[in-house]
Design brief:
CATH topology: Rossmann fold
Strand order of the largest sheet: 1-8-7-6-5-2-3-4
Largest sheet: 8 strands, mixed
Order of helices and strands: EHHEHEHEHEHEEHEH
Strand content: 15-25%
Structural class: alpha/beta
């Protein structure tokens, strides 16, 4: 199955091992990186749709960062829009600074006419946070596996995450779905920044991350799903075993 609950026998991958899966898929299996991103986003959109159906909701806010996690967010936005969902995208970085496959998926979303709002200044973030209160689902595609506890969070990322978490103070807050890793949670150590996203569910790619088994991580992850990106399961097992 492309999306499933986590199994206790699943290999646990580190940040570097997760990156190795992508690299070997591209170099040895000849799967272009943009195909991996497409598969990841399509499967994550299935999880998002299931969450919306559970509450009979339709409105989605997607917070995209500047890296591949943000690229996944643009793919998710496209597939949710095509499924009839009301989608709005919020970029935490100037979109002219995007690179690689993320640039391509941003361009596709823009060409489709999907609303993409910048929130690179405090007043724009405040306006965005007000708009999020009317959403049924908020998708965290901000940081992913790139966050490392020892480096901490940049002030602008911390401000976005704080705005996401403050939604819980409202009477009817949107559900929160984290993509790959809740932003601000170190996927290797399970250590969470004080500003880490508290998600209702997380859809992680290929395999659970080693830090997810730490007790501290559970309250940030919520319900955990594992989604494929088009790579064979033997590849993750091979990397997990160091072969």
């Amino acid at each position: 199955m492309s999306v499933r609950p986590v199994h206790k026998n699943d290999p646990r991958l580190t940040r570097e091992q997760s990156r190795a899966v992508d690299r070997l898929a591209i170099e040895q299996l000849h799967i272009p990186g943009i195909v991996l991103m497409e598969n990841a986003g399509l499967n994550a959109a299935d999880v998002a749709s299931g969450m919306l159906e559970a509450v009979e909701g339709n409105t989605v806010a997607i917070i995209c960062g500047g890296g591949n996690n943000g690229g996944d967010g643009y793919v998710i936005a496209r597939h949710l829009h095509n499924a009839g969902r009301a989608v709005s995208i919020y970029s935490s970085v100037p979109t002219d600074t995007l690179k690689g496959d993320t640039t391509t998926n941003h361009a596709i979303a823009r060409a489709m006419g999907l609303p993409i709002r910048a929130m690179t200044e405090p007043d724009k973030l405040a306006a965005a946070a007000t708009q999020w209160t009317t959403s049924d689902l908020l998708i965290d595609a901000l940081l992913g596996t790139g966050y490392q506890a020892e480096r901490g969070l940049r002030d602008d990322a911390a401000a976005v995450i704080d705005a996401i978490n403050r939604l819980r103070d409202h009477d009817n807050p949107p559900m929160v779905l984290a993509i790959d890793v809740p932003s601000g949670l170190d996927c290797d150590t399970g250590q969470a920044n004080p500003a880490a996203v508290v998600a209702d569910a997380t859809v992680t790619f290929v395999a659970p991350k080693v830090g997810f088994d730490e007790p501290e991580a559970a309250k940030f992850l919520g319900q955990l799903f594992v989604a494929g990106i088009g790579t064979p399961p033997e590849l993750a097992e091979q990397i997990h075993l160091g072969a």
